[in-house]
Amino acid sequence: MKTKLMTVVVLMILFNNMVQAEWNSFRPREEAETPVPKPAGEIPNLTAEEVEKAKNEEDRKRFEEAAKRLEEETKRIAEEEAQRQAEEEKERKAAEAAEAAEAAEAAKLLEAEMKLIAEEEAQRQAEEEEKRKAAEARANDYPELSLTMAKVLYLLRDDPENSHRTFSFYPEVSGWHIFQTYGPSDTVMEIYHNEQSIVNTGKSDGDDGHDNNELQHKYLEAGERYVIQVYLQSRSWSGKAILNVRAEEPFREYESHLTVGLAKKFWLSTDDYDQTHFTTTFTPETTGRYNIETYSADEDTVMEIYHPDGYSMVASGESDGDRGVDNEELQVKTFEVGKTYTIQVYMEDFDNDGYAWVHVWRSTWDPITLAN
After folding, report:
1. What gap in Å lies between CA 87 and CA 84, rounded to an integer?
2. I need a labelling partner for 172 at 20 to 30 A (CA). Which of 3, 101, 349, 366 fits?
3. Helix (H, G, I), strand (E, B), or coil: what is residue 238?
4. Considering the entire predicted model, what is its pTM?
5. Residue 282 belongs to what H/E stretch?
6. Bridge partners of 318?
C-alpha cells in the first residue's frame, strides 16, 4: 500500500515538474526577447500572441492527458488495493475459521480423552475396590491351601474344633487340580464351590488315594473360591493326615523344569521307543526335604532319581516301591539348593501304555511316616 501511494506522489511530482518545465520553456520572459520565426516557404507568419496561445493549448491538452492517466493509475491502484484487502480479509476469515475448527476439534479430542481417563480411573478404582474386598474376604476366610507347602492335620472326633479342618483355595490359573490326603487314617474329603459340593456322589470317602486316603481330580477356574474340608471316617476316633494340592501343567510341556506344586503330564508306551520313559529335571530354590511322586491312569510306574554327580538316589529295589497311589511311586529325598536333579519315569509292565504325571511337593511331615 505504501509503495503504491509513493508511486502516485512521484507521478504527480514528475507531472508538475514536466508541465512547469514545458510551460516555462514556451513562456516569453519579455516580449522583445521572443524570437520571431523567419518565413519559410508557405508557413504563415504568427504573432507572439498566437504562438503563446498555441503553446497554452498544447500545455492544456498535455495536462488533461496527464491528469487522465493519473486518474486511471490512481483508480487502478485503488482497485488493486481493494482487491488485496478483500483477499487478505478472506484469508483472515479462512484462517480464523480453520483456527476455530482446529480449536473445536482439539476441544472435542480433549473432552474424549478426559472422558476416557475418567472411565479408566473409575474402572481402576472399581477393580481396586473389588480386590480390596476380595483381600478382606480372604483375610477373614479359612486358612488357605498353597501349591508350595502341604497342610498337616490333627483330627479328633470328640473335639468340635478338631473333628474336621476346613481350608480355602484360590487357583491362580484355570486347569486340572488334584487334592490328596496322606497318612494311615481313613479320611473323608469334601470340596465346595459357591456353597455346593463338587465331589461326585459317594466319592467323599472314595478311598481313591493310597490305602484309605482321598484323591479328588477337579477342573478349577482361576480366581474362584473353593472350600476343602477334611474329617475322619466314622470308624476313626483320632488320626493325623497331610492335605496337599497340585496343579497340572498343560500336556507336552516337556522342556521346562519341574516346579514345586506343578505336575507334568506325559504319555508312556512300551511299544514306542521314544515314549518308553520320561525324563525331567528339578532345581530346588532352598535346601530341604522334597516329595517326588508319580500318578498314572491305572498303570504301574517306576521312578529313578539321579544326583547331579550321576548316581541314583533311589535305594536298591525301591524304584518300584509302590508307595504311592496303587502301583505309583513316592520318594522322599533331601535336595540341595542350586543343584539340578534328574527324574526319570517309565512303565513297569512291558505291555502297558497310558498317561502319567510326576510332581514335586513339600510338607513339614514325611508323607510316608508322618513324622516331622
Report:
1. 5
2. 366
3. strand
4. 0.67
5. strand 277-282
6. none
Beta-bridge mates of residue 260: 360
Grid look-up 505291555 returns 351
358 touches 278 (CB < 8 A): yes
Contacts of 274 (CB under 8 A, 6+ apart): none
**Under 8 Å between Cβ of 135 and 144:** no
Determine the pLDDT at residue 38: 52
Q: Is 371 helix (H, G, I), strand (E, B) or coil?
A: coil
Q: DSSP characters for 48-84?
A: HHHHHHHHHHHHHHHHHHHHHHHHHHHHHHHHHHHHH
Question: Using CA atoms, how far apart are residues 172 and 170, in angstroms rounded to an integer?
Answer: 6
Which positions ≥6 away from 352 have C-beta within 8 Å?
268, 270, 299, 300
223 Cβ partners below 8 Å, 6+ apart?
170, 171
Q: Where are the alpha helices (DSSP H) in 144-243?
A: none
SS3 state at 10: helix
The stretches in the chain having pLDDT less than 50 are: 2, 8, 10, 18-19, 21-33, 40-41
Q: Return the residue matching grid coordinates 497554452.
A: 56
Q: Is 32 helix (H, G, I), strand (E, B) or coil?
A: helix
Query: In the chain, what is the greatest distance between 2 CA atoms, to the nearest angstrom?
Result: 168
